[in-house]
Amino acid sequence: MPIDCDEVAASALSGGKITHFKRLDSTNSWLQKNGQCGDVCISNEQTAGRGRRGNQWVSPATGNIYFSLKCCFDAPIQQIEHFSLLGLSVGIAVAEALADIGLQNHGIKWPNDIYWQQKKMGGILIENISPSNTVIIGIGLNVTMPEAEASKIDQHITCLSEALAKQTILKQSTQINRTKLLIAMIRQLQSHLDKFTSLAFGDFKRDWDKWDVLKNRSVTFQHKKKQITAIVAGLDQQGQLGLLEQDNQLRFYSSADIRLSKPLNKSPYKQ
Fold first, then answer.
1. Are β-strands 119-129 and 241-245 bridged in parallel, bridged antiparallel, or unpaired?
2. What fold characterizes domain 218-260?
3. Which residue has the higher pLDDT, 145 or 212?
4. Could you tell me if 71 and 147 are in contact, meaning their C-beta atoms sit under 8 angstroms apart?
5. Does pLDDT of 27 surpass 80?
6. What interhelical angle do 201-211 and 86-100 show, nearest 10?
7. Residue 234 pLDDT greater than 80, yes or no
8. Treating both helix axes as pointing N-terminal to C-terminal, what angle do 86-100 and 178-194 enclose, rounded to 10 degrees?
């Protein structure tokens, strides 16, 4: 079922407009060049989708959702003390939107991935652009992913239709209305963005702890060419990951400092 952009605009946008493409290099790149504050760009397929560290985001035309939002804050981002929490807050918004449509046992893998039972379902890319108060928020969500396309991705992935089909209560109906899904995502995203500049860390931490799939788990990561195993122990006020290492010292790392190894260790969820 195609996305009804008029319905999305009427139901979810408080300003800005939606531009929808069948095929595009990157929704983030298009908005950087053409978008105004509050605008949303959607594409059925991306030929040059990208993730963190310049990695490619495989974006086939299989019925997934790829969209970006151009967000303009009232102040330069350098003046927003907790700006480093933005990507994590966007992750919370996506997780809440998925809960709104009935998904269970999903969450956020620090710093920017949406996970369902140890498998990646989506990702987030935040890019700062000029002027200094402006960011592009890109979100990719696997809604349907045929095995032929999934095999091109070098990590464990899943899609929303697969996850919903495995939930007993929804086994009889896994048809996903992408229009309603996109409305839920944009509504939650805008709600979190509206309150972001005045966000209290205690409120953020409460929400993060609810969706954190790594909390209290053992992970292995690379830091300065060294492989380290540690227990995840929450975040600090800059959104850095707290890791209790084998010398019993708690250290905090930014997403630029470390790379978590794959696959993840044992999931806390019951299968």
1. unpaired
2. SH3 type barrels. (2.30.30)
3. 212
4. no
5. yes
6. 50
7. yes
8. 140
> Which residues, 6 or more positions from 253, have their beta carbon under 8 angstroms from its beta carbon?
221, 223, 240, 241, 243
Full strand arrangement of the beta sheet holding 250-253: 250-253, 241-245, 226-235, 218-223, 259-260
The amino acid that residue 230 corresponds to is A
Domain 5-211 classified CATH 3.30.930.10?
Answer: yes
Looking at residue 52, the DSSP 8-state letter turns out to be G
With 0-12 / 13-18 / 19 or more C-beta atoms within 10 angstroms meaning exposed / middle / buried, residue 127 is middle
The model's pLDDT over 159-181, given as tens digits with 9 standing for 90+, comes to: 999 899 888 654 555 679 999 99
Give the C-alpha separation, 69 to 58, whole Å: 19
97's tokens: 């939107």
Residue range 38-91, pLDDT digits in tens: 999 999 999 887 665 556 666 777 889 999 999 999 999 999 999 999 999 999
Q: Which of 97, 128, 130 is nearest to 114 (CA)?
A: 97
Does residue 268 have a cis bond before it (omega within 30 degrees)? no
Distance set, CA 135 to CA 21, 58, 197 (Å) = 21, 22, 14
> What residues does 43 pair with on adjacent strands?
21, 66
Q: How many CB atoms lie within 10 A of CB 86?
A: 23
Q: How confident is the model at residue 270 (pLDDT cuts 50, 70, 90)?
A: very low
Indicate the domain borders of the chain. 5-211, 218-260
The overall average pLDDT reported for the chain is 89
Residue 240 has what DSSP assignment? P
* Predicted local confidence at residue 52, as pLDDT: 59
